[in-house]
Amino acid sequence: MELLKELCECSGVPGQEARLREIVRREMDAVADEMRVDALGNLIVLKRATKRRSPKKLMVAAHMDEIGFVVSNIDERGLLRLVPMGGHDPRNMVAQRVTVCGTRRDLTGLLYPGIKPPHIQTDADRGKALQVSDFVVDLYMPASRVKREVEVGAMVTLQRDFTEIGKGVSCKAMDDRLSVYVMIRAMQKAESFGFDTYAVATTQEEVGLRGATVSAFGVEPDVGVALDITLAADIPGVPEHEYVTKLGEGAAIKLMDSSAISHPGLVAHLKALAKQRKIKYQMEILPRGGTDAGGIQRIRAGVPVVTLSVPTRYVHTSIELADRGDIEAAVKLLTAFIEEGQKADLTMV
Question: What DSSP string runs through 97-126?
């Protein structure tokens, strides 16, 4: 799990994914027949099909970016004001350590809203709902020094150490470094390639599937598989019918979300592969949210797509939690599809 730890602890908000790109480049170097970076920073890794004439193209997409912030202002006290990148719930932002990526080095700061301490709050203060705009980052440095070391536009990410908890692993940015890990491991483990396989580490997913859309336009795939985490809402306070998925029940084959409806032939083939290879899986419908599949399917004349998900608790927080068995199931199922996905029936009836 050292690679997953490195990926999760690395900083990379939408539009500033360079650090992640270099990790993926390093890991994919021994696998790739070709590698290139496009205009939006997507890393596109091509592995040619094994002994096949006129193979179809498979695009596998996993996004590198994480939710975070960029610095929008540095005030006279040296406090940093922020603009959010991606979806944040202010209740999950209180009293967090953050990494501020400065001009010369990374700095540790404290993320806290501009509110009174509980001891001096009035009833009106306590009833106020927090907004993302209430938060500042305190570096506890003179303002002059802060302004020398931090620029407007600097990225700010939540700061958490990767840790193993029971049967699972937890960190910030499991969304979607977990899927980048799955993609890398499956490409490394595949014993044959049924397609010309384009493994794409995409950018700017959290702000609108931008990297997947432009990279798919360039690749022109015949089939698309998006990799992402999905909600495992199997926690107190959530009715069972709203769990979406459960931890420990295997990789999730997505039927639909608000960005894409999976191709029935690809869903059926993934289910068949899982049964043949005795890989644990579960089915998923996500009422709100989307993945890179939504960007891939809309390019040119359209692309049949499916999403393979890793169930995750506490999504878009600093303590996202996934089951090690579910991660391994996702690696095995993606490996199987890379090897045999070309057999899927893509006719529409």
Answer: EEEEE-SSSEEEEEEEES---GGG--HHHH
Could you tell me which of 180, 188, 209, 182 has the C-alpha nearest to residue 21?
180
Rounded Cα distance between 308 and 305, Å, is: 10
SS3 85: strand
| Closest alpha carbon to 96 in 119, 114, 113 | 113
**Residue 158 · residue 96 · CB < 8 Å:** yes
**Prediction pTM value:** 0.95
Selecting among 17, 27, 205, 320, the annotated active-site residue is: 205
- Active site (annotated) includes residue 205: yes
Residue 144 phi, psi (nearest 5) = -60, -40
CA angle 180/203/38 to nearest 5° reads: 110
User: Which residues make Cβ contacts (< 8 Å) with residue 15, sequence separation at least 6?
Assistant: 41, 65, 85, 203, 204, 207
In a structure prediction context, what are the per-residue pLDDT tens digits for the chain, which is 349 residues long?
Answer: 899 999 999 999 999 999 999 999 999 999 999 999 999 999 999 999 998 788 999 999 999 999 999 999 999 999 999 999 999 999 999 999 999 999 999 999 999 998 888 888 888 888 888 899 999 999 999 999 999 999 999 999 999 999 999 999 999 999 999 999 999 999 999 999 999 999 999 999 999 999 999 999 999 999 999 999 999 999 999 999 999 999 999 999 999 999 999 999 999 999 999 999 999 999 999 999 999 999 999 999 999 999 999 999 999 999 999 999 999 999 999 999 999 999 999 987 6
Element (H, E) at 83: strand 80-85
Whether the ω angle into residue 176 lies within 30 degrees of 0, i.e. cis, is yes
Query: What residue type is 180 in one-letter code?
Result: V
